[in-house]
Amino acid sequence: MANVTSAPVRQHLMALSEQPRRPLEELFPSVDPSAISLISSLLEFDPAKRLSALEALENLFFKKLYEPGKEVTAPPIPREELAFNGPKLNAAQMRWLFQEEAALLALK
User: Which domain of life is it from (predicted)?
Assistant: First the structure.
């Protein structure tokens, strides 16, 4: 909870009643244990303990699919470049942007 920096979010989480954790193995008894391990790691509440996308690919569950030498990696996109951090758009503006993007994709 210490990692939750938003006061309203922290307040909301504190107001929730505590529920005992139900083991995923009990909820999904016929699922491959490596899948259970992967899902458990991806559902970790603390982001510092949660698997990254690359760590998830290295999980035993993807052993037959993941080929590290063929995986393309790139540095994270800077926050200021993410479009959703920009100005709020109304429905007409969003529609126009979608149409522009579709037109650009159609040209490829």
Answer: Eukaryota
pLDDT in tens, 10-52: 899 889 988 898 999 999 999 999 999 999 999 998 888 999 9
Interatomic CA distance for residues 35 and 25, integer angstroms: 10
Domains of the chain in sequence order = 7-107 (1.10.510.10)
What is the Cα–Cα distance from 94 to 88, expressed in whole angstroms?
Answer: 10
The amino acid at 60: L
**Both tokens assigned to 46:** 């603390």
What radius of gyration, in Å, describes the C-alpha atoms of the chain?
A: 20
